[in-house]
């Protein structure tokens, strides 16, 4: 959601800000804008346009090379439609102050009423504009933008990242954050503020984490961070471990396709160092947690939730601990019973998903121990968890999550094996066997990707279908849910995942002649193999066109069979999901959709 960039330094700010916004495009947006300080104490140059960044760029009549500080924004509309006027930045009535915002200001109506009484004129329908007016009033008191920001933040309810610039102190960019992401990029004589590090990755790899309710003031020479009372804070510094190339398409037509093909490496990188030479599973991240665990609760949203549903089977079978998986957005508004013996695992690629963050805080308040599985170093969810296990998927740019999912599943497998080892619920020889299968996964995913062309051709043949159903049992059921989610978000088609056993309890009524049904088959040795084969017969008898995903142990008589390598049943989703991703990708391409930025979606859902 909303991308935010601020720059101050000796270089032309516009090009730095636009480059940052381009790199943040993946977050999803519907309008964009910039504000530049070109001349001390003069009105700022402000340009904003509905639609893609190209619209904004073509509306600019100059490169404004004299502006060496500026802020830029890509907006994902919440309050007020995606119009030029509602796009950020929002400016004070004298035009000297501009603000950009990610999040929601919950008390904006009362603030606006009050500001209008004080003579401020509003031009947009946004919640953000009140902040611009409030800040300009506060700034007038002592000409200190950081002090003004601290004072304003105390008056705001809701969640926000805010950046502000004022032409009276044009070298300063001031930011603040509460429940929304903001990082500092520390350059050489230039500094950046941004929603995430990809905005400045080609200029610096040095970053600073900002905490809750902190205000940051950057100039070309320095960074100063305070709490809302003005107390100095030393932010945590970290080095970004990937480079700009990792966040570029590198010859692929879409980021999503590139990320699908990066999955073998993402799995290997996430497993690196997990299996010691002595055969021991290494999981330092949870060594500091108490292993006196009588229940695990996994909380996440969307695809990350599916990772949890898949991981549950292995965690229970290997570690013999009951596992529940719940949507973070549901959990946060319940009054569940947790104890210090409950381990709550939150899963999040971005580490900033608002519902997952709020669910984590709720779980902590209820006394649980918390572990996060996350792909983004320094993000809020891992910072607030008792332990963190980082996945190493690298930057995931396409809105639809692919490589992050597979790494989240293997991370859960590592946790399951570690707990089984420590609690001795699996024998050493069983652990060795599973370990070998886990380590073989990258090559098996590679094998699928090498033979994916016929699947791509076949997918195009289903381009005009109106609905696709996905069927699975056991771990194949959450894999089916994921297949359906990918197809919905990318191809804008009706798609649903069902547990095979539920078919006759309703969903079978949806089958018509020609309905594509994608069935995920377990290995033939599984006790559910024959049940799935019966489900296939049932849908075939009603005219469905079945596409089966199966390993070579299962004989099938259906129009399309996609073969995947053999693996343990519990690990199979790491293979069966790959063709489902390719199916959704190819369908989106065939239907002419924006694969990397599907309509209405945002990469990191930082509002409720
Ligand atoms: C689907 C997708 C979303 C995310 C969800 C959680 O392809 O990308 O469903 O999985 O928004 O995001 P994170 O993992 O960042 O918490």
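Sequence proposed for the structure above (608 residues):
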């Amino acid at each position: 959601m909303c991308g935010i960039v601020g720059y101050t330094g000796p270089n032309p700010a516009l090009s730095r800000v636009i480059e940052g916004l381009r790199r943040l495009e993946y977050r999803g947006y519907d309008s964009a804008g910039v504000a530049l300080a070109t001349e001390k104490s003069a009105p700022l140059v402000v340009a904003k346009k509905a639609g893609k960044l190209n619209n904004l760029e073509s509306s600019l009549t100059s490169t404004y090379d004299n502006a060496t500080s500026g802020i830029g924004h890509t907006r994902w509309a919440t309050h007020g439609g995606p119009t030029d006027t509602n796009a950020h930045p929002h400016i004070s009535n004298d035009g000297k102050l501009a603000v950009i915002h990610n999040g929601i200001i919950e008390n904006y109506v009362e603030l606006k009423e009050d500001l209008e009484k004080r003579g401020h004129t509003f031009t947009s329908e946004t919640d953000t504009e009140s902040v611009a007016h409030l800040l300009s009033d506060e700034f007038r008191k002592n000409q200190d933008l950081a002090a003004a920001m601290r004072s304003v933040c105390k008056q705001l309810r809701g969640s926000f990242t805010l950046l502000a610039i004022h032409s009276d102190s044009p070298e300063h960019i001031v930011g603040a954050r509460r429940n929304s992401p903001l990082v500092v990029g520390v350059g050489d004589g230039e500094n950046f503020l941004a929603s995430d590090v990809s905005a400045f990755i080609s200029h610096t790899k040095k970053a600073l984490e900002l905490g809750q309710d902190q205000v940051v003031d950057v100039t070309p020479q320095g960074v100063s961070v305070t709490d809302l009372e003005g107390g100095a804070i030393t932010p945590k510094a970290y080095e970004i471990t990937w480079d700009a190339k990792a966040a570029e398409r590198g010859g692929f037509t879409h980021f999503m396709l590139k990320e699908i093909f990066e999955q073998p490496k993402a799995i290997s990188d996430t497993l690196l160092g997990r299996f010691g030479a002595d055969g021991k599973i290494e999981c330092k991240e949870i060594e500091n947690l108490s292993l006196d665990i009588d229940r695990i609760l996994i909380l996440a949203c969307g695809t990350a939730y599916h990772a949890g549903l898949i991981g549950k089977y292995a965690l229970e079978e290997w570690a013999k601990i009951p596992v529940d998986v719940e949507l973070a957005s549901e959990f946060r508004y319940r009054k569940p019973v947790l104890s210090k013996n409950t381990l709550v695992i939150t899963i999040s690629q971005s580490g900033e998903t608002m519902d997952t963050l709020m669910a984590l805080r709720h779980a902590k308040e209820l006394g649980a121990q918390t572990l996060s599985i996350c792909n983004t170093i320094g993000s809020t969810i891992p910072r607030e968890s008792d332990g963190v296990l980082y996945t190493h998927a690298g930057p995931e740019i396409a809105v639809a999550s692919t490589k992050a999912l597979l790494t989240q599943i293997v991370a859960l497998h590592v946790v399951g094996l570690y707990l089984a080892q420590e609690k001795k619920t699996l024998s050493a020889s069983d652990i060795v066997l599973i370990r070998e299968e886990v380590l073989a996964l990258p090559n098996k995913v590679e094998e699928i990707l090498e033979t994916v062309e016929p699947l791509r051709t076949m997918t195009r043949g289903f381009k005009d279908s109106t609905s696709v159903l996905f069927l699975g049992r056991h771990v194949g059921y959450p894999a089916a849910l994921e297949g359906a989610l990918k197809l919905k978000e990318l191809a804008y088609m009706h798609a649903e995942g069902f547990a095979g056993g539920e078919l006759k309890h309703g969903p079978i009524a949806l089958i018509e002649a020609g309905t594509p049904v994608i069935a995920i088959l377990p290995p033939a040795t599984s006790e559910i193999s024959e049940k799935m084969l019966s489900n296939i017969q049932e849908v075939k008898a009603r005219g469905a066109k079945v596409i089966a995903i199966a390993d070579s142990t299962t004989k099938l008589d259906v129009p399309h069979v996609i073969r995947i390598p053999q693996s343990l049943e519990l690990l199979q989703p790491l293979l069966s999901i790959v063709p489902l991703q390719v199916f959704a990708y190819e369908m989106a391409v065939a239907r002419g959709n924006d694969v990397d930025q599907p309509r209405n979606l945002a990469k990191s859902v930082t509002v409720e």
